[in-house]
Amino acid sequence: MKTRILAGALAAAMVTGPALAELTFPSLSYRTGPYAANGIPFADGYADYFTLLNERDGGIGGEMINMIECETGYNTEKGVECYESTKGEGALVYQPLSTGITYQLIPRVTADGIPLHTLGYGRTSAANGKVFEWVFNYPATYWDGASVAIKYLLDENGGDLSGKKIALVYHNSAYGKEPIRTLTELSGQHGFDLLELPVDHPGQEQRSTWVQVRQQRPDYVLMWGWGVMNQVAIQEAVNIRFPMENFIGIWWSGSENDVKPAGDGANGYKALNFHAPGADFAIYDDLKTHVYDAGKAAGAGDQMGTVLYNRGLYAAMIAAEGARKAQEIHGVSAITPAQMRDGLEQLAIDEARMEELGLGGFGPTFESSCASHGGSGRVAVNQWNAADGKWEVLTDYIQSDQELIGRLVEEDSVAYAEENGIEMRCQ
Amino acid sequence: MPDQVLFAIEVMLNGLMAGVLYALVALGFVLIFKASGIFNYAQGVMALFAALTLVGIMEGQVPFEHLINVVFGTEIHGFGWTVPALLAIILTMVVMVIFAWLVNKLVLRHLVNQEPIILFMATIGLAYFLEGLGDMMWGSDIKALDVGLPQGLNTWIDETTFNLFGYGFYIDNLDISAAIIAALLVAGLVVFSQYTKQGRALRAVADDHQAALSVGISLNYIWVLTWSIAGFVALVAGIMWGAKSGVQFSLSLIALKALPVLMLGGFTSIPGAIVGGLIIGVGEKLFEFLVGPLVGGATENWFAYVLALIFLVFRPQGLFGERLIERV
Q1: Could you give the CA distance from residue B269 to residue B177 in angstroms, rounded to a whole number?
Q2: Could you state, in chain order, the average pLDDT of each consecutive group of 10 residues for chain B (328 residues)?
Q3: ipTM for the predicted complex
Q4: Do domains A22-140+278-375+407-420 and A142-273 have the same CATH topology?
Q5: B195 in a domain, yes or no?
Q6: Among A97, A269, B154, B234, which is disulfide-ready with B47 (CB 3.0 to 4.6 Å)?
């Protein structure tokens, strides 16, 4: 009798249970904790894109997508736990949205043979695919960001920054320190003084930093911040009446969350970005039809068009396109993580493809290769319009100094390869 | 006067102002520790919860809005009204009193006579519960908080010091407000504890639980009262810190800033919290200004603890703490 009940239950589960998902994308998200306000829109965008593909296209290449969400709370240990608990599910690519988790996962994904895509964060020199076989950080790295910020300021100053003083207000962590090397090189090249002002985690109290800014009177301030550090820094800059148009943040210091608490004072603040803000893209029509109106939106469904929601969409789009490319290369629909790596390594995002995806003009075009995992390094400058409550795109995508970045990436990654006994590939 | 001296004076003044903000957080810890011997790990989260509740009420947000919409399929998006800041502060205080009553009823009453470490662990649980509750009630987004306090550079100080020294000092109007409010708060607490029946009962419980019970003071009532006052202090701290950064979940981390203040000032002294806050504020800011550039900066977090430890070497009970003599 027991066996019959068990068999019946099993049969019922097979009939009524969810369809077997073939393409698994873990989402290491943080909807709780001090960084939840940033984690939620990204996680929502990431989930909604995959939902759209499942609902509209039946997945990718005929295979349904299974997105597994795991809460990290932006905590490195929890992030590693999430990785360990989901990697056995056939995970195709990880995008942890945390530099701390990224550094812990690099050796793990290398050993396990699972791709890691750190979209504009993580270890910059992972752009060298000859050393970091499983890690990708396109379409732009922190060093591209530093280079583009200086290029933009050169344009603003008739090509001459000599004698100018540029302050870098940065999160005192591996992430915040990333641009220092590039900026030091550029300071030597262009003759500007670089003033380094670290801010300790979490950055709730920055009075010393901004008193120094007031005393030292830099012409420009660049910021590498995250979370509460951004809001406090922008408010402090408003307090000391620093001209906001001379204050430029990296893309992790350039969301609506960062500027809104400072109100009208934040008007004119600038931030770098490697994708567009807003909801004026064809994909939003499809999202509305197949996801929002169908009641399938992730979270509270209130993040559409925000910078971080769009970044989540963009991250998911790259993962999906990587999977599509892998299917094309290998002629199978149910791909493995190693095949996914091949897809990500031969990915080409051109304007025609972006148009097809309903994302025309959304981000820079780029190509990946065995040696190059860092993208084109093209970044735009956006500016906050407080009256309209939205980011405006100020420039086209500006090309970073590829010669300098290439040299720095090579030096750092080769040193890493020597330290870790990694044999160069793509020879 | 040389520029460096002027800069140092400006840094010192800002340190005093920052110290007041640290003291505001430390006060909440002291009140509860003094009355019940509990180190309330949840004090930072109470500041967050109070600030979230205040903004939620001001903006006419429906508590548990997202949860209600998901469970019942409704499309509720706020009550459609806004509440003036003063009324919202009063309503938030009512919520904090209810919270204090619930903490006593559901947690503390069941842990009477337990070891201090058990009570401490209970407050850790309380902190996580309260953080989750705040998230469910009011959402995780960053909320701008404006209760009408002036913010930004004080022009009068800037101009006056510029006319005197040729360099205008930067003092934030919000910090000046915080200093005035902290002074009023401490004066109010002193008057309350010295001249009211409840205040005297509170001090009696703080001195000796058993003796207070024996003369008919209700321990439950005193604990609810203490947690309510701590809730009010948390609300004030939440307003001040929330106005600087927006109300967001990292607000709970301000508790980290209070720990060195408590170590230095003593866990049982209200003046200790104030003086400790000022010493930590000035010490960390001056150290950052004078030594920071030589060691790569970002010294404030660790220097506050080092300063507190140095004081502990000479006064283990803190500057104003009570020396414990236990006879066996």
Answers
A1: 23
A2: 89 94 92 87 95 97 92 89 96 97 93 87 95 93 92 95 94 94 91 90 84 89 93 95 91 88 89 93 93 88 90 85 65
A3: 0.90
A4: yes
A5: yes
A6: B234
Domain enclosing residue B127, as ranges: 3-314
pLDDT at A158: 97
Give the residue among B82, B104, B54, B95 at the shortest CA–CA distance from B226: B104
Which CATH class name applies to A22-140+278-375+407-420?
A: alpha beta
Closest Cα in chain A, distance from residue B279 (Å): 15
| Residues whose CB falls within 8 Å of the CB of residue A84, separated by 6 or more in sequence, listed in order | none
Q: Which of A357, A383, A186, A359 is nearest to A279 (CA)?
A: A359
Please name the member of B14, B143, B251 whose beta carbon is closest to the beta carbon of A211.
B14
Cα(A349)–Cα(A346) distance, rounded to whole angstroms?
Answer: 10
Cβ pair B53, B223 in contact under 8 A: no
* B320, part of any domain: no
CB atoms within 10 A of CB A356: 11
DSSP A144: H
- Binary contact (B292, A208; C-beta < 8 A): yes
User: Which residue in A318, A403, A401 sits closest to A152, CA to CA?
Assistant: A401
Q: pLDDT value at position B324? A: 62
pLDDT at A8: 47
Number of domains in chain B: 1
Q: How do residues A126-171 score in pLDDT, each as one tens digit?
A: 999 999 999 999 999 999 999 999 999 999 999 999 999 999 999 9
Q: Which of A33, A23, A39, A26 minimizes the C-alpha distance to A85?
A: A26
Residue B106, min C-alpha distance to chain A (Å): 25
Is B308 within the bounds of a domain? yes
- Domains of chain A, by residue range, sit at 22-140+278-375+407-420, 142-273
- For A245-272, the pLDDT digits (tens) are 999 999 999 999 999 999 999 999 999 9
**Hey, is the C-beta of B250 within 8 angstroms of any chain A C-beta?**
yes
Fold of A142-273: Rossmann fold (3.40.50)
β-strands A220-224, A165-171: how paired?
parallel
- For A300, nearest residue in chain B (alpha carbons): B66
CA–CA min distance B143, chain A (Å): 7
A30 vs chain B: nearest CA distance in angstroms?
11
Neighbouring CB atoms inside 10 A of A68's CB total: 16
- Enter the pTM of the model: 0.91
Can you tell me whether residue A24 is helix, strand or coil?
A: strand
| Chain A residues with CB-CB distance to B66 below 8 A | 300
Low-confidence ranges of chain A (pLDDT < 50): 1-20
pLDDT of residue A6: 45
| Selection from A181, A169, A116, A176 nearest residue A143 by Cα | A181
Count residue pairs from A and B with Cβ separation < 8 A.
Answer: 121
Could you tell me if residue B319 is inside a domain?
no
